Amino acid sequence: MGKQRITDVLKTGKVMVSDGAWGTMLYQKGLQPGECPDEWSLTHPAEVEDIAREYIAAGADMVETNSFGANGYKLAHYGLQDKAAAINEAAARASRLAAGNDRYVIASAGPTGKLLLMGDVTDDDLYACFKEQVTALERGGADAVCIETMSDAGEAIAAIRAAKENTRLEIIATFTFEKTAQGEFRTMMGLSPVEAAGRALAVGADVVGANCGNGMERMVEITKEIRAAFPDAYILIHANAGLPAQVDGKDVFPETPGMMAALVQPLIAAGANIIGGCCGTTPAHIEAIKNAVRNL
């Protein structure tokens, strides 16, 4: 496509802006509870493409794909495991159409829901599953794969290896951390931000970071930890619009676009190279983040 790789852009010192939540937007488009969000890439391609277009219009330098749960294990819950390749290829194609040739598609690949620790799967099983997904995402036109919301280093490593050994995609690996009673950040499987980033970098991730689970303020703390340990790493942060509260049985995310934008400067100062959103964020949030980055 004639454009630089993402890491080459980051080498220049530019702070890039990613997109926001996809689940939030899919529900706004009419996704019903119990439906498979990823199947919409096949059944509602225009709506899926429109989400990516809205984020591009908001100023995003890169957009993800509607493929977070489009691995064979997750799709099996809907009886769709045989459509995994088709769903991923369609998801990447929709975002590619929206992104055009000058913006980037960082295709989403989330966890399988299977635990190596419990013997649900083997490393080889996970590798094969992610290989099917990432190769289809590349066929659909992705520039990179965003292996995201990970909690287990073993699963993340299987996904990174599958992408590195079978595609030319740049590899982003992000983990989800919660703050413990002791004030430390850990994944569900006990990994610290430094441990998680280190394991991902060691097997070839081009970009590391955190997504989901925390608002911008806590992401500043997480970014500082990673940057202190890995001064030369590229760091992506996809923060939630704050911590959710239950209102009338629904999760409501309290941070407005302005509130998130106000924390862009501290996040960049902490060491973030790519900033976007996760749960609860919308094109309005991304537009505010983009404007904050421009103003800096």
Q: Could you characterize what this model shows?
A:
The chain is built from 13 helices and 12 strands. The chain has a single domain, classed as Alpha-Beta Barrel (TIM Barrel). The protein has an 8-stranded parallel sheet with strand order 1-12-9-8-5-4-3-2. The model has no long low-confidence stretch (mean pLDDT 96). The chain is globular. It is an alpha/beta fold. The longest helix has 17 residues, at 123-139.
Descriptive labels:
single chain; 296 residues; alpha/beta; TIM Barrel; 8-stranded parallel beta sheet; two-stranded antiparallel sheet; 13 helices; 12 strands; globular
Concise structural overview:
With 296 residues, this protein is an alpha/beta fold. It has helices spanning 6-11, 23-29, 40-43, 45-57, 72-75, 84-99, 123-139, 153-166, 193-202, 216-229, 257-261, 264-270, 283-295, and strands at 16-17, 62-63, 104-109, 144-150, 170-175, 178-179, 185-186, 207-211, 235-239, 245-247, 250-252, 274-277. The chain is built from 13 helices and twelve strands.
Give the mean pLDDT.
Answer: 96
Run of helices and strands: HEHHHEHHEHEHEEEHEHEEEHHEH
Strands, total number: 12
Which bin fits the share of residues in helices? Answer: 40-55%
Report strand order across the widest sheet: 1-12-9-8-5-4-3-2
Main beta-sheet strand count, sense and barrel state: 8 strands, parallel
User: Per the principal axes of the C-alpha atoms, what is the gross shape?
Assistant: globular
* Strand residue content: 15-25%
So what's the CATH class?
Alpha Beta
Number of helices: 13
CATH architecture: Alpha-Beta Barrel
Tally of distinct domains: 1
Query: Nearest-angstrom radius of gyration?
Result: 17 Å
Structural class: alpha/beta
Low-confidence stretches: none
How far apart, in Å, are the first and last alpha carbons? Answer: 29 Å
Can you identify the CATH superfamily? Answer: Homocysteine-binding-like domain
